[in-house]
């Protein structure tokens, strides 16, 4: 009878919990400074904060072979810096600059490098399509469990860059199959490729928002052909480097935790800023903003020449720039400027490069304008037209 009475009470309590403690979404995190795991409830979400555990890599070797580690550091001279970058990104709250493109030849050992952190349980891997699906709230085969202890989000052999990549700063909202939506944190974002990536790097340099986010590490060489790698064997070589990396990361984490949350965050964010200061992608490939005046000059020259062709016997009416340029009182005016520049980009750039140039068309129109005012109403042949007053370096180009 007592058991039955207790079960009635338990049922009432459980019904109350189910009724009053339902949440639409769950936010997951591993707090590096917490001593115990906590669940806090907000109006529409539950926040789960777990504790960090010492990294214990799954390897067969128990003792580090220092020769293997020294040899790998000779192969990848910035290895220790990359370890520090990964830890700094884990403690930084502002992770806008925590992107790295590791651009290495196909035989360099990108998979070897990634698998070091796989063995430690620090990697969550996503494709560009999965990232797009996440931002579109589409279900895909990832759950909060995959992100829980991950220090690094890896995109391997990526070939193109989409605008969603810029949003991978602090967290991502995922919709796991048959599970409620969840928000999970992301820290270091690492992109691995052997080839140049269209849309990220083009003839005009790097688009400003990517330049402010990405560091660029270029590597070459053949890891499997190294004498030490062959002598020790792939497994022991890999295990030694993995153990060393785990040991170093654990030391760095303990050091950061000892600073306290505020100081650790400050140190981490300053370190990442210095890292991108050394390896920022704009340093290697240049920035769009520095090449825009040159691009505008090319467009200007092309527009004037094409408008002159339209009046010649050799003009091909299938060309796209017919009737974009008008002349009045010794001046050249560009009509439908956005469309004209858009057409120029289509004709002269690959689709991936064009996608990065379209957003800067307003800036190009200002640079094209002889008075710096861009598209404004102007008097042309007695009529008011919205147009750009073009720069014409050679007065002989203007029809009389």
- In terms of DSSP E residues, the strand content is 15-25%
| N- to C-terminal distance | 109 Å
Number of strand segments: 14
Within the largest sheet, what's the order of strands?
2-3-1-8-7
Structural class: alpha/beta
Series of H and E elements: HEEEHHEHEHHEEEEHEHHHHHEEHHHEE
Fraction of helical residues: 40-55%
Shape: globular
Q: Report Rg.
A: 29 Å
What is the average per-residue confidence, as pLDDT, rounded to a whole number? 85
Regions with pLDDT < 50 over 5+ consecutive residues? Answer: 310-322
- The tally of helices reads 15
Largest sheet: 5 strands, mixed
Task: Provide structural commentary.
With 400 residues, this protein is an alpha/beta fold. 43% of the residues lie in helices and 18% in strands. The chain has a 5-stranded mixed beta sheet, with no helix packed on it. A 5-stranded parallel beta sheet has the order 5-6-9-4-10. The chain has a 4-stranded antiparallel beta sheet with strand order 11-12-14-13. A hairpin with a 2-residue loop joins strand 11 (325-328) and strand 12. Helix 2 (66-75) packs across helix 9, helix 3 (79-91) crosses helix 9 and helix 9 (234-259) crosses helix 10 (261-279). It is globular, with a radius of gyration of 29 Å. The model is unreliable at 310-322 (pLDDT under 50).
């Amino acid at each position: 009878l007592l058991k039955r009475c207790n079960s009635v009470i338990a049922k009432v309590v459980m019904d109350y919990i189910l009724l009053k403690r339902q949440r639409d979404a769950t936010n997951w995190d591993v707090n590096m400074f917490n001593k115990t795991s906590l669940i806090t409830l907000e109006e529409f979400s539950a926040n789960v904060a777990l504790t960090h555990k010492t990294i214990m890599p799954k390897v067969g070797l128990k003792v580090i072979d220092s020769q293997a580690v020294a040899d790998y550091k000779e192969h990848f001279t910035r290895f220790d810096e990359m370890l520090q970058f990964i830890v700094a990104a884990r403690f930084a709250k502002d992770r806008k600059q925590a992107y790295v493109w590791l651009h290495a030849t196909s035989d360099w050992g990108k998979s070897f490098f990634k698998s070091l952190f796989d063995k430690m349980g620090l990697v969550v891997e996503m494709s560009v399509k999965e990232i797009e699906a996440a931002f579109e709230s589409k279900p895909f085969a990832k759950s909060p469990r995959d992100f829980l202890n991950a220090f690094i989000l890896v995109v391997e052999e990526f070939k193109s860059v989409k605008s969603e990549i810029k949003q991978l700063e602090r967290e991502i909202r995922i919709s796991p199959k048959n599970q409620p939506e969840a928000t999970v944190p992301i820290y270091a974002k690492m992109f691995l490729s052997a080839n140049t990536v269209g849309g990220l790097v083009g003839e005009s340099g790097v688009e400003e928002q990517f330049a402010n986010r990405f560091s660029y590490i270029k590597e070459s060489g053949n890891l499997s052909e190294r004498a030490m790698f062959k002598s020790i064997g792939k497994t022991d070589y890999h295990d030694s480097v993995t153990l060393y990396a785990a040991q170093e990361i654990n030391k760095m984490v303990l050091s950061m935790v000892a600073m306290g949350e505020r100081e650790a965050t400050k140190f981490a964010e300053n370190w990442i800023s210095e890292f991108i200061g050394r390896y920022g992608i704009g340093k290697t490939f240049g920035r769009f903003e520095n090449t825009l005046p040159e691009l505008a000059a090319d467009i200007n020259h092309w527009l004037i020449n094409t408008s002159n062709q339209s009046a010649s016997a050799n003009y091909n009416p299938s060309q796209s720039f017919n009737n974009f340029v008008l002349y009045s009182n010794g001046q050249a005016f560009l009509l439908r400027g956005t469309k004209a520049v858009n057409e120029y980009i289509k004709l002269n750039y690959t689709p991936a490069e064009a996608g990065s140039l379209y957003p800067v068309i307003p800036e190009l129109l200002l640079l094209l304008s002889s008075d710096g005012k861009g598209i404004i109403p102007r008097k042309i042949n007695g009529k008011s037209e919205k147009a750009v007053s073009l720069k014409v370096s050679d007065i002989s180009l203007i029809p009389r």
